[in-house]
Amino acid sequence: MSGLLGPGPAASSSGAAASANDWAKALGQILEKVVLSQAMLNSCRELRLFAGAEEFEPWLEHTTEMLQEWAVPEAEKQRCLIESLSGPALDVIRTLKLIDPGVSVKDCLEALDHIFGSVEGPEDSYCKFLNSRQQIGEKISAYIQRLERLLQRAVMRGAVTAEQMDRTRLAQIVRGAQYQNPILLHLRLRERREHPPSYSQLIKEVREEEERQAASEFWEAQTLEPDGHSAGKCHNEENPSLVYGKLRISWERSGSCQRVRGRGPPRPAGVEDSPRNDRPAGIPTGLIGPRAEVMVKIEGVECKA
């Protein structure tokens, strides 16, 4: 009888719930594809156009860095690369794909480098990589990014294999970074040369450590030491009242100078002195009364005594 009347209320509700779940899942997949395609469209627009007449080296450095940072499939990277090419440069890749339809992005860049790049042997490219050093004032993350472009050039020239990149990169960072770099010490990069991290993992760790140390230095600059303001580390607005208070405490605690009324550290303009407490330390309140002063006249001149 129930079969003739159709499914009951329970069956209808479960079917509706399943249908809603399927609909939500399908909608989520569609949104994911839309977001991914939009992100890829924006990323492709960031690539510079190259036809063959422009300077190749700056274009290669920019394109290599952008393609390496994109967390997208290889096919999408190749599509964006082809869209950024025109003229003779595009003809090179078309010919390459006719010979090998499964050619990789790395092979495409190598082919463009052989035709439009500078005439540089593997020894020269590897020598430039080994001679790269961190400059004074240069962040370690900026040095690693600059070094990576030289390493990729050496790989394209055949001086270094792709399997050796992580080990070769870390060895040169340890060699070329400034002596006793705090980030290298904190991340223990010297001890990790046998099991080096990938480029993406390395640059992530370095940037996070740079931000952590910058935040630590900022908060350290906010804390004034007893001997005054740490102006060398602080880039905030001046606070003369707070600095003068710290200096005054330092003078009063110092045994190298005697506190004399009217003497002390130079007071910044606009800073008022705090009330003095002349009561000797350790004497209970009320044990010592006010000063006994009377007015007397000496040779016709009134004065306190």
TrEMBL record:
Region (Disordered): 255-288
Residues in Paraneoplastic antigen Ma-like C-terminal domain copies: 51-203
InterPro entries xref list: PNMA, PNMA_C
Top-level taxon: Eukaryota
Alphabetical list of PANTHER family matching this protein: PARANEOPLASTIC ANTIGEN (PTHR23095), PARANEOPLASTIC ANTIGEN MA1 (PTHR23095:SF17)
Protein name: Paraneoplastic antigen Ma-like C-terminal domain-containing protein
